[in-house]
Amino acid sequence: MISRGERLANYAVLALFAVIAVYPVLLILQTALSNDQIGGGGSFHVENFADAWDQGHFGSYLRTSVVVAILVVGLSTLFSVLAGYAFGTMRFRGSEVLFYVILLGIMVPAEALVIALYFDLRELGLTNTLVAIVMPQVAQSTAFGTFWMRAYFRGSSREVVEAARIDGAGHWTTLWRILVPMGRPALTTMIVLVFMWTWNEFLIPLIMATDESLRTAPLGLAFFQGQYTSGTALLAAGATLVALPVIVLYLFLQRHFIRGMVEGAVK
């Protein structure tokens, strides 16, 4: 039984961490709604978001980020489910070695590979294209997703799988009609994490594409910062616009996300 003092101490610690987490967000919002002009008054200036949107061309950058995120999340999720199911439920020669080779995708940082990857893609004529931005991120995300889904499939109920096999279900039916619906929290957690990493990716779009039409939102924000180093309100408004999709997605899927993280920690 937790005493009242311990409960109050827990709430105090949680409140402290909540303040630490929320304060930077509120500070950015306050800056985004402020006026950079001297003597401009203390009222809120919502028009800063419209000015940042127009001057920073964030409409184009956000559209590119959405396309890239959809492609990366969709492809990596498909590959991760298939590979995770194979490594988690099947036993075949070389499976362990192959699994650890795939894990190199999350062990080796992108900074160590991006230059060599750039020259390889340039030889194939793929630089400055959407493929050059999407495929390296698909490879990275698939490595993590395979690790994540393998853990889920290994911890899934053996009785349910065996019952499906007895009823004549093959691997394809067992995977998509039984295990994937059961693993919705784990799958949702993986999708949110991959979307967040893809949306915030800066290095790969910077190296692989020089065309302005292929700039993603974080890259566009960096160029916008170079143009408006003194306009902190517009910079804060642009940063808010870039971060907003990730926040909205997390708020929409937070219940499944937290459930998937807790189940993964328990397993």
Spell out the key features of this protein.
267 residues; MetI-like fold; 12 helices
List the helices and strands and how they pair.
Blueprint: H1 4-32, H2 47-55, H3 58-89, H4 95-107, H5 114-123, H6 130-155, H7 158-166, H8 171-182, H9 184-200, H10 203-208, H11 217-227, H12 232-266
Helix pairs in contact: 1-12, 2-12, 3-6, 3-9, 3-11, 4-6, 6-9, 7-8, 9-12, 11-12
Transmembrane segments: 12-33, 66-85, 97-119, 125-148, 186-208, 228-253
Organism: Jiangella rhizosphaerae
GO biological process, one term: transmembrane transport
Q: Helix and strand string, N-terminal first?
A: HHHHHHHHHHHH
Biggest pleated-sheet summary: none
- How many separate helices? 12
**Would you identify the regions where 5 or more consecutive residues have pLDDT less than 50?**
none
Average residue-wise pLDDT:
86
What is the share of helical residues?
over 70%
Number of domains: 1
CA-to-CA gap between the ends? 26 Å
Count of beta strands: 0
Q: Which fold name fills CATH's third level, the topology?
A: MetI-like fold
Radius of gyration: 23 Å
Named CATH architecture? Orthogonal Bundle
| CATH classification, class level | Mainly Alpha
**Structural class of the secondary elements?**
mainly alpha
The CATH superfamily turns out to be MetI-like
Shape: globular
Strand residue content: under 5%
